[in-house]
Design goal:
It is built from no helices and four strands. By secondary structure, it is an all-beta fold.
């Protein structure tokens, strides 16, 4: 038996000049499974990322 829940992933990827993946950061994964889970994120000018996780 599978899970039919819809999931949205927001990911930030970085590549080198040859288009090779260097890094991947999962910024947000939104889904509902009895409880709704999501994250809010902010990319700041100093190149840091602030992520807050919520479940309601």
């Amino acid at each position: 038996m599978g899970n039919d829940s819809k999931i949205l992933n927001v990911e930030l990827n970085s590549y080198d000049s040859y288009n090779n993946l260097l890094d991947a950061v999962l910024l947000d994964r939104r889904f509902t499974f009895e409880i709704e889970y999501y994250r809010n994120f902010k990319i700041k000018a100093d190149k840091t990322i602030e992520i807050k996780k919520y479940s309601i």
